[in-house]
Amino acid sequence: MQYRDYYAILGVARDASEEQIKQAYRKLARKYHPDVSKESGAEEKFKEVAEAYQTLKDPQKRAAYDQLGTHRAGEDFRPSPDWQKQWEWQGDDSGFAEQIDLSDLFAHLGAAGARGGAQRPMRGRDFEVAVPITIEEAYEGTQIDLDLNMPEYDERGRLRRVPQAFRARIPKGATQGQRLRLPGKGGRGFNGGSNGDLYLDISLRPHALYRPSGHDLYLDLPLAPWEAVLGTTAEVPTPGGRVRLKVPSGTAAGQQLRLPRRGLPKPQGGSGDLYAIVQIVVPAVTDERERALYQQLAEASTFDPRVQLAQESGHAH
User: Fold this and answer.
1) Could you give the 3-state DSSP secondary structure of residue 140?
2) CA-based nearest residue to 111, from 88, 95, 92, 94
3) Which helix (H) or strand (E) holds 128?
């Protein structure tokens, strides 16, 4: 079955009111009516507009159409078995997408509604809301207050927005991209149908120190040149408090030093790791004595940091 975007055909938003849909239809119907329009393809356009309006003007059909989700115009798709069961499709499921056109599908829904009466329960719509939290909130867990304007249909099928306030618990260890479900907190059911669900899409706010990857955390660890060469012990911040990290001698820039179980908690127990990425920091200001010591090191050392460049240059010739 090919998807047709009825909202785009009428040029209205997906949360357009009944009156906005009606006005858009009337305007387009006048524009493309075959008896008055001189435009090429006006008759087909008129039929397309009428088909979209016949679905979106009916609350039951519109709710069913919305639950098909969004697809690209002309994209082949197949309604889910749950959708078919909810809307009482009685056709042969094995060839559903090939046997029926989208307009035929909603004509069937209209006939089913007439047979079943206007009081057939309809489940409310599911909604999603973006919830950004801090690394600290992800580490400890938190509660958030949501004040939302939820679109819902009234008894006459008109779309309106109703203020809804929720308090939701975000468990510790929530990660970037995680989706939390609040059952029954979505759109209100119609004709006694159950409410939809509300989904919280978790994102982690940028942090001054930490970069998350799943339950692991990464941070930059600045070292002075002599600390990297000789080794040292450095204090490193973690979400659970500062810890001491042993830096071995000869540590290179970019090397990752692992602190086990110092990342974000995992839902089933345990924690991710924290990785300290070594950054060699050169002093911006040196006094005469320091410069003299660097000069002695330069004269005594046989270390060549660009030896690989010389080797590769030789291979190139």
Assistant:
1) helix
2) 88
3) strand 127-133
pTM over 0.85: no
Which residues share a beta bridge with 235?
Answer: 244
10-residue stretch averages of pLDDT, the chain, 317 residues long: 88 90 89 78 86 86 84 80 64 47 68 55 81 96 89 64 88 92 85 85 96 97 96 96 97 97 92 97 90 92 85 64
Q: Chain centroid to CA 66: how far? A: 19
E-strand spans in 136-273? Answer: 142-153, 159-170, 179-182, 198-204, 211-213, 216-223, 232-236, 243-247, 256-259
Residue 184 near residue 200, CB atoms below 8 Å = no
Tell me which H or E stretch contains 25. helix 18-32
Q: Please check whether residue 244 is in contact with residue 231, taking contact to mean a CB–CB distance below 8 angstroms.
A: no
Cβ burial of 222 (10 Å; 0-12, 13-18, 19+) is exposed
How many whole angstroms from its chain centre is CA 63? 23
